[in-house]
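Subject: mismatched residue count in predicted assembly?

I count 550 residues in my input, but I want to confirm that the predicted structure covers every chain. Input:
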Amino acid sequence: MCQLMGMSCNNRAATTFSFTGFSARGGRTSDHVDGWGIAFYDGYGCRVFQDDQPASDSPLAEYVRNHPIKSRVVVAHVRKATQGDVQAANCHPFQREWLGRTWVFAHNGDLGRFEAPLTCQDMPVGTTDSERAFCTLMSRVRQHFKNRHQPPEWSELAPVLADIVGDLARHGNLNMLLSDGHALYVHCSTHLHQVTRHHPFPKARLVDCDMSLDLGPLNAEGDVMTLLATEPLTIDEPWQTLRTGEFRVYVDGQEVWRHFNPQTQAFAAAERMAL
Amino acid sequence: MCQLMGMSCNNRAATTFSFTGFSARGGRTSDHVDGWGIAFYDGYGCRVFQDDQPASDSPLAEYVRNHPIKSRVVVAHVRKATQGDVQAANCHPFQREWLGRTWVFAHNGDLGRFEAPLTCQDMPVGTTDSERAFCTLMSRVRQHFKNRHQPPEWSELAPVLADIVGDLARHGNLNMLLSDGHALYVHCSTHLHQVTRHHPFPKARLVDCDMSLDLGPLNAEGDVMTLLATEPLTIDEPWQTLRTGEFRVYVDGQEVWRHFNPQTQAFAAAERMAL
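Triage response: the counts match. Full output below for your records.
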């Protein structure tokens, strides 16, 4: 299993505080030592930092903790390998371009021997079930909107993605974060939490480090930010637990769409559907 | 105009010395201040570092200079914007996945108002002629090999790429580096140099910095490495100048294929074909 962190905001914001707590799970407060990655969107441009070293020791993670990169959407992952060996090609988030947008995807869970159909236009570079699921998802989206020259709006995409994600989640646990730099699409099979911050901003204390931050002076009155994480990153904030089968969409820091699939189930570690 | 640096090696090698000289061109010894990027292949996994700050000042470039990342193929770029504003989406190298390989592309030159055909499957995220050329190239390659499920060998790809690159170079200057992590494909319209290093390895002195390095102790007897750069990076090494219209392929540090297109021309800065 791995851990996820995501952020959606209506203004460009740094996530150094949150990433400090999150990256501690890559070796210090948790045993997710098989690599990590973080994607920052700057407009539709996307910069991905990845390393196959534990996030708590990695000099590149140290760089990311110490150099604020302002962004409106962030997708991050610390890896504990269940499938695929420890190598750069298996580090999340994965990325693909579709209709002039860079899509990134990070996954927590285990989809067993799930294989992408041979007809997929997107093919995995590495050897993880996660990248195979992402390739399947992107290929189905391409197919659904195959005559478009412009990317569809999130409102048109959301129900299509909810269907695809529902299908993928029949193979095993699919906790995921997906973005094109504008909307952040999330799905919960077993573990995902969210908190939305707005004025008045609290003083937040990290779960994983002895560190507090008064978020008030760092934010303007109109700022709205939603953070997502496998497990809450801070103490004293009202983190919500997503339900099994919930699919949500966030734009500019706020939830804009939600779907619940009652057929989605949470799989025990070794139990998966043979489909 | 921009500057390019590429490396192909038969063993994983660090390029910190070369990148130290090269990145000085991003603001200190040359005015390529509009961003930079470098792609390192680890097997078929590809890590890209990019920044829209000048390479000579960028803390991330400092990180890359100080933390050796061993790789068999490297593609790097410092940017002086001629088209497209200064933003992350316009930083080279660009990347796309095709048949389970990550392809990266970096370009020096100016292709004018060149537009990718609307039928392209790959679409640009940013606003540069370079990314439009890369999208066209990848879409033509996809089309040529459209029924494949496995990537073709370099020997099958090389003549196809040479044709496509010859077509693109009719629109303006196309000095480029392209790789899938195995082969490094290069084309020269105006400026590209190469040097191949093997035993006995020389002591090399950088052109752009007061820095020398004895390459002998860093390399084993069987190591072979080819470096490519817009302008030679070192003094005292036998850099070769590529001709206008030359397309070469390097695998494991050695040239394996070459094509010369006598119709390719070098364009003056403001002169381009209206095609």
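The domain at 3-260 of chain B is CATH 3.60.20.10 (Glutamine Phosphoribosylpyrophosphate, subunit 1, domain 1). Marking this ticket as 'not a bug'.
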